[in-house]
Amino acid sequence: MKRVIAFFLVCIFLGSVVVTSWPRLFLPSLDFIFDSAKISRDVGVQQLQSAVVRLTVLARPEEPGVTHPVVQRRGTGFNVEPTGVIITNHHVVRNAVRIVVTFPDGTVCKVRDWSGKPELDLAVLELENVPQSLPSIRLGDSDRVGIGDRILVIGNPLGLENIAISGTVSRILDYSDDGIPVLGLAAPIHPGNSGSPVVDRSGGAVGVVFAGIQAGDEPQGLALPINSVRDYLAEIAIQ
Questions:
Q1: Please, what are the domains in the chain?
Q2: What amino acid positions are annotated as catalytic residues?
Q3: Which is nearest to 138 in space by CA: 85, 66, 98, 61?
Q4: 20-40 per-position pLDDT tens digit
């Protein structure tokens, strides 16, 4: 019911909703690549980028009549603990039989276990055999986020890696009767940004991108507030 309500709200909001795993139906402006190169010169941004991972997922196909045993997906996630706890979207790892996590420095980790909350499109991955303390992004406070706040989104859109996108919080929508909000992002969100962290000016993650929306000629995004992630981490006993 929550996902239906969320879809309905977004349709009213901008008319066309497509999750960030959509097919490439249009050729987007690539200006964000050049902007990312400038943004990424900042040492603080580089530290954030070091904790944003590429997810390679082998999953059971969902389409009836599909003959091949698995399908491959790629997405974004970000590490929030030096011991290896990755936040991403449930739709990225749904029906997964194998998940490989690759850090920007080339460190490759396998997933020991994962759990998810499909109604929030949220998944948490716990890594195994972590070779060393891993770079991580601290959790911020999404209750302090306001419309117009500057944000940074870091992810792997359109097959690219570690792209830093600047933007603002454009809207805050109610997700359901439970009062769970959604952050609307005025930022160029593209396929592959699923699971990207939304970072505030202090360097804390305040959201997780879960969908893209097309507003006229401009791709924008939707993100789950990080306090909902924090609640789920406490629910599954990961502090």
A1: 2-43+138-233 (2.40.10.10), 52-136 (2.40.10.120)
A2: 91, 121, 194
A3: 85
A4: 333 333 445 578 888 899 999
